[in-house]
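User: I'll paste a sequence; please echo it back and then give the predicted structure.

Assistant: Echoing your sequence first, then the prediction.
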Amino acid sequence: MTELEALRELVAFREYGTLSAAADELRITQPTMTRTMRKLERELGVPLFDRRAKNRLSLTHTGELAAQEAEQLLDAYDRFVETVRNDANLHNEIVVGSVAPGPLHFLEQAGERNAKWESSITVRHSLIEPDAVLDDLLLRKETMIITDREVDDPRVESLYLGEEYLGVAIDNFNPLAQRTSVTFADLAGMDFVVAHDIGPWRAVIEEQIPGAHFLYQQDLSALEQISKYSAFPFFYSNLTRSLRMTDERFMPHTRTAVSIADPANRIDFYATFLGDNRRLALPIQQYLAQHRPREQ
């Protein structure tokens, strides 16, 4: 039976072009690799290397095909190992990811209020790209992912959670702070301090607020300090307005919370999970759907 290591060496030869370079990359000796490649040829019963040129080894057409197939097999094996290990880990906890931060912050708050889940919940704060959602679920990296769209695949379910709206905290001396609501167009040309990872909201604010400048901050503690001691407006949402971290940003009461009444100010979220994780995911989906704040 062909060993995976032999396939790795074949793929390395195709990538690096010589036995010596491939062996160096794999940290084995060239004679060891030569023996492995000859053994692989014997097992397959076909020549993989063209040895006619003196001091120069190259893949035959069949060898090239074999290396391509080997690479796919190795990728499949790595995926197999990752999926099995992730599944074992998910038996000990419920892991929830999201494409946007608001639902995750709200979920953490729900945990602090002693919501009764079947297992402990781990919130994965590194946001997931929408195009990676299905693959993450199939690799069992997360039990459930909160998405901004339904995932159309027979292996998963996407159940509606609710919507998120933005509000804006405006300096009390700004005339806009005296209004009950504003549109995105009303905020044109302003400078905002914004968390770096806001998922799909980033495209919304950049497209909808003309001439605005966004001072993105990776460090959330720095974001809090800038919010406290500057006049820059910042965004919050119906999912985060009641959080302690948002209240801290409103201190020392130099800003007014103003609603954004704009057709573009809405993102719908879904709880997306594999069908065989329904028992674990459904109570979380139901809680979030029933308790989500509807006002900004």
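Residues 166 and 233 are 13 Å apart (CA to CA). The radius of gyration is 27 Å.
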